[in-house]
Design goal:
The protein is mainly alpha-helical. It contains 20 helices and 6 strands. Among the domains are: 12-105, Winged helix-like DNA-binding domain superfamily/Winged helix DNA-binding domain (Arc Repressor Mutant, subunit A, Orthogonal Bundle), CATH 1.10.10; 181-402, Rho GTPase activation protein (Phosphatidylinositol 3-kinase, Chain A); 465-492, no CATH class. α2 (46-59) packs across α3 (69-81).
């Protein structure tokens, strides 16, 4: 089974989880092992599983080579907890997996996650003033007009209007936009652009638009300093001064302006630990729980860096201003520390860049519910943020210009012709874009394979039907969809594990059954020749 790129869309974390399980089951070598004078068929050592899964994740374009061996061990712990694997005695449910020589095996059927049925978020209908309604004041009919002497040329012009050669028109007086109207326009057009960049038909399954605060978008765009950092109106939400001093100390090492020069060895590590402890105690990540799905969807665009940067630019505008400012300061610190050659190593075993990703990924992106791949997804996103933080955490100029032009257009007095819409000058937003033939074939294949794989898993896990009916349904499925069936059962052995043969026990031989009743001798009649 070849790994495939999982693009943006709903339930991306679940789709990645199911794909990794299928790849791991298909690629993990199974051999015969001995443990305590007993042999076990079709199993593997814990260290072999770590090696195989680490190589698999590193070569997978959804995760990349930055996945560490420690992160792989943590994922295998979750595999053991969720019964993707079990030990040779059939035990599972605890995260006691270690990188050692203990033996594990696959259960007859590893549980693929079903796609959760989320209630669709209702689309907000943004109400604007009735632009065609004239403002209060003298109507056009009662405007005093200076009398003009009629001549032949003037008569012809008026006659041409009367017979329809020149369309009749009227002035459309616009109401003044309130601040609330402008904020709602920003929200509507920002979400429309995000939907277009992600290539989705709707944002409903990845984002609850009711949770998007239009005031936050406007504040993040206009309340910024010369460096592009958000300025907060509520100063109580600012980072503490001592944390800012600690961050500046490591960024500007060895010239610390706010702190005295260190007097002992290891001072820089203590300062770094202080920063990590502060951000680790936050109750909610900087990207917030509400926006987890939208940022995970953006990860599907990392193969197209320009689109991924724009999607992250827009997504970060949705954050509360205090979260956006902390994200700007933290990611900038992480990137500069990684490039500071004068700063001593903060860890003996891990490179500085890797340490930055491991230390701050969880406080930047994580899910409120337990998501099995959130650590790997967060590490992937944080690495991309560090590489492109200057562009991602700035205000998208193209979006800002288009929205400002639209607002000016709505405020302008216009001439409206009969039967025409006064706002027809602005084309409606388009959500379609051309794709290549290869992308179409991939979307068609993956779009049908995923529901079929879910249907096959439902047949496998159904305990209410008999073994005979289950075998019959599986044969029909194999005949109709051989490619999907081969992914789930890559070899006859995996199929045989679903129906283990039951050893029939012979009933014990009873002593009374050996004692036959006395049978008298019957004399047979002989015939003489």
């Amino acid at each position: 089974m070849e790994p495939r790129l999982v693009g943006p869309g709903p339930y991306r974390a679940t789709r990645l989880w199911n794909e990794i399980i299928e790849l791991f089951r298909a690629g993990m070598p199974l051999r015969k092992h001995r443990c305590r004078f007993k042999s076990y068929e079709r199993c593997f050592k814990a260290s072999e599983a770590v090696e195989c899964l680490h190589e698999l994740l590193g070569s997978n374009q959804n995760f990349g080579p930055e996945v560490t061996r420690d992160q792989t061990v943590k994922l295998l712990k979750k595999f053991l907890k969720n019964h993707v694997i079990e030990d040779i005695k059939g035990r599972w449910g605890k995260e006691d997996f270690e990188d050692d020589g203990r033996l594990y095996r696959f259960p007859p059927s590893s549980p693929l996650k079903s796609y959760p049925k989320k209630p669709l978020c209702g689309k907000e209908v943004i109400k604007f003033p009735d632009w065609n309604e004239p403002r209060a004041g003298p109507s056009q009919e009662h405007i005093p007009v200076k009398s003009v002497a009629m001549n032949s040329e003037m008569w012809c012009k008026r006659h041409s209007i009367a017979i329809g050669e020149v369309p009749a028109c009227k002035l459309v007086f616009r109401r003044e936009l309130t601040q609330t109207n402008i904020e709602e326009i920003w929200k509507s057009m920002t979400l429309s652009r995000l939907q277009k960049v992600l290539g989705l038909d709707s944002l409903d399954e990845v984002l609850d638009t009711k949770l998007v605060n239009s005031k936050h978008i406007v504040q993040n765009v206009y309340n910024v300093n010369k460096q592009g950092i958000v300025t907060l109106e509520d100063k109580s939400k600012e980072l503490p001064h001592w944390i800012l001093s600690a961050m500046k100390c490591l960024v500007n090492w060895p010239s610390c302006s706010d702190l005295k020069q260190p007097t002992y060895s290891g001072f820089e590590r203590d300062v770094f630990k202080t920063i990590v402890d502060y951000f680790s105690q936050m109750k909610e990540p900087l990207l917030t729980f509400n926006f987890f799905d939208i940022f995970v969807s953006v990860l599907g665009l990392l193969q197209k860096p320009s689109k991924a940067v724009e999607a992250l630019q827009i997504s970060c505008l949705l954050l509360p201003p205090e979260n956006r400012k902390r994200l700007q300061l933290l990611v900038r610190m992480m990137a500069r520390i990684s490039l500071n050659q004068d700063l001593p190593r903060l860890s003996e075993s891990v490179r500085t860049r890797t340490l930055m990703v491991q230390a701050f990924s969880h406080c930047i992106l994580c899910s409120k519910d337990e998501i099995d791949l959130d650590e790997l997804l967060a590490a992937k996103l944080v690495s991309f943020l560090m590489d492109n933080y200057q562009e991602i955490l700035s205000v998208p100029s193209a979006l800002k210009s288009s929205i400002e032009d639209h607002v000016v257009h709505l405020q302008r007095v216009q001439i409206k012709y009969a039967g025409a819409d006064s706002d027809a000058a602005l084309p409606p937003p388009s959500f379609c874009h051309q794709i290549t033939t290869g992308e179409f074939e991939y979307q068609r294949a993956t779009g049908s394979h995923e529901p079929l794989a879910a249907l096959l898993e439902e047949i496998v896990m159904n305990k209410e039907i008999s073994v005979k009916d289950k075998k019959k349904k599986l044969k029909q499925f194999q005949k109709s969809y051989p490619e999907v069936y081969k992914v789930r059962f890559p070899s006859p052995e995996t199929e045989a594990m679903l129906f283990p043969e039951k050893t029939k026990q012979k009933p014990p031989i009873l002593m009374w059954a050996l004692k036959k009743p006395f049978q008298p001798f019957h004399r047979t009649r002989s015939f003489r020749m």
